[in-house]
Design a protein that fits this description.
Blueprint (H helix, E strand, L loop, with lengths): L4 H19 L3 H20 L3 E8 L23 H4 L12 E9 L5 E5 H4 L4 E5 L5 E3 L1 E6 L4 E5 L21 E6 L7 E12 L10 E4 L11 E3 L5 E8 L10 E5 H14 L5 E2 L2 E5 L2 H6 L8 E6 L4 H5 L6 E5 L2 E2 L3 H9 L6 E8 L2 E8 L1 E2 L1 H4 L5 H5 L1 E5 L2 H7 L7 E6 L4 H4 L7 E5 L2 E2 L3 H9 L6 E8 L2 E8 L2
Antiparallel strand pairs: 1-2, 1-4, 2-3, 3-7, 4-5, 6-7, 8-9, 8-11, 9-10, 10-13, 11-12, 12-13, 14-21, 15-16, 16-17, 17-18, 17-19, 19-20, 22-23, 23-24, 24-25, 24-26, 26-27
């Protein structure tokens, strides 16, 4: 059917206006074009230093977490986290398995950063560059508590990326995520910094995540988050999703944490973590009112470990830590992460609210017991993470016991999973020795030496039973 004269005039007008618009771009359009070119230049510089990390596993895979009904890390993540979150293998698969993630080069001589969960327990690691070159990757060291791994390849004169100061990053700034989502190597997405200092997500023990809306999908894990100077401000690590795919919320480990861990892994192959020796509880509005606080900020000391740095400094149960070295403590996660990233024997000043009065306490930070046991790699040997049973945690889980340690996470491919241990269960004793803190648990495990089995007393629901864990 012939178009009416009016339709023809409207179409012609649109074409003419469109042509004129393209010929004489407005200043705003020119600004957009300039920004577009800036993004292109960042991508051009970064892509040669961003790699694909392919892994292969020879051991058989265990059954899923709680028959696919248990989230490995809790929070807003899908049950089959490692399968759907950045390309980890199917839990039910048998025989050789393969995984896919990302990484980025941080030195010309071949050091590469990625996530620990990308390479954990891998028998074979292949590093692929966007120019087609491939290398065998070697694990220099890993830190499960921050989910960081340092790899090395035998190469020289490599393009590499520089770590920036993530503390200077501001909410609303443009950032670029680079990685290999869905095996599509060298993919670039752009977004902004949505938030900083995200914690209590149960992704890792040490959490101060950068939140971004730059699209992150399966395979992006371990890739870099760049600022507008083409410097690394974070490592893409996790997503919040209801369907396993991108929903506008991604999390990246800040570059300052990356640098802290990377330097220690490169120097010694393990990480020494600062230790205060307290169980902490979240401050809510009711507690803020009781402790005479203006806001729900700070961290409540629920318990002080005997003979710990906190105990020796005079910190008491009921103290509310408001500042550390003059810097406000926003929440429990912020304090825990700050202490963890400090060096043993470092002296810090805590400002606490005690009996509704501010008090300053000087503490000499110790070495975390877990750090002292790093050479034995207790967590990797067992395949589980534990945390102290604080009143806050006990209330969340509906537990009325006042002793034991909570299982925070179980690796689906581990002796712990095979023995039936699950997240949220309570470990009461190790080889019939009671354990009331993660420190006591780790020390008890360190005393096993070359034993092939360990006897755990575990409470699941209302049932208490003994479980023999095979350590071979």
């Amino acid at each position: 059917m012939m178009k009416s004269t009016l339709q023809k005039l409207v179409i012609a007008g649109m074409l003419i206006n469109g042509y004129a618009f393209c010929e004489t771009a407005t200043p705003k359009v020119s600004l957009v074009k300039e920004m577009s070119k800036e993004f292109a230049q960042i991508a051009k510089k970064a892509l040669p230093a961003v790699v694909s990390v392919r892994t292969q596993y020879s051991q058989k895979s265990s059954q899923g977490q709680d028959e696919m009904g248990q989230q490995p890390f809790g929070g807003p993540f899908p049950d089959d986290f490692f399968e759907r979150f950045f390309g980890f293998p199917m839990p039910e698969q048998r025989g050789p398995r393969k995984g896919q993630g990302s990484g980025f080069v941080v030195s010309a001589d071949g050091y590469i950063l990625t996530n620990n969960h990308v390479v954990r327990d891998a028998d074979q690691i292949t590093i692929s560059f966007t120019d087609g070159r491939e290398f065998v990757g070697k694990v220099i060291g890993t830190d499960p508590n921050t989910d960081i791994a340092l790899l090395k390849i035998e190469a020289t004169n490599l393009p590499f990326l520089v770590l920036d100061n993530s503390d200077d990053l501001e909410i609303g700034e443009w950032v670029m995520a680079v990685g290999s989502p869905l095996r599509l190597q060298g993919s670039v997405t752009v977004g902004v910094v949505s938030a900083k200092g995200r914690s209590e997500l149960d992704i890792a023990q040490v959490e101060q995540f950068i939140q971004t809306d730059a699209a992150i999908n399966m395979g992006n894990s371990g890739g870099c988050l760049l600022d507008m100077d083409c410097k690394v401000v974070g490592m893409n690590t996790a997503i919040a999703t209801n369907n396993g795919g991108y929903m506008g919320i991604g999390f990246a480990i800040p570059s300052n944490i990356l640098k802290h861990v990377m330097d220690q892994l490169r120097d010694s192959g393990h990480v020494t973590r600062g230790y205060l020796g307290v169980s902490l509880q979240k401050i809510d509005s009711k507690l803020a009112s009781v402790f005479n606080l203006d806001k729900s900020e700070g961290a409540l000391v629920a318990e002080v470990v005997k003979d710990s740095p906190a105990d020796r400094a005079g910190l008491k149960s009921g103290d509310v830590v408001l500042k550390i070295n003059g810097k406000l403590v926003e929440n429990v996660g912020a304090l825990r992460s700050t202490i963890a990233l400090m060096k043993p024997q470092e002296s810090v000043t805590l400002t606490v609210m005690r009996n509704k009065q501010p008090v300053e306490i000087t503490v000499t930070i110790g070495a975390h017991p877990e750090s002292e046991l790093a050479f034995n790699d207790i967590q990797s040997r067992l395949g589980l993470l534990v945390q102290d049973l604080t009143p806050d945690v006990a209330q969340q889980l509906g537990i009325d016991r006042d002793h034991g340690v909570i299982i925070k996470n179980v690796d689906p491919n581990s002796p712990a999973a095979e023995a039936g241990l699950r997240r949220g269960q309570l470990i009461l004793s190790v080889n019939q020795k009671p354990v009331n803190s993660s420190e006591e648990f780790l020390r008890a495990m360190s005393e096993l030496g070359n034993q092939k089995h360990v006897l755990l007393q575990v409470k699941a629901g209302q049932v208490v039973r003994y479980i023999t864990l095979d350590l071979e």
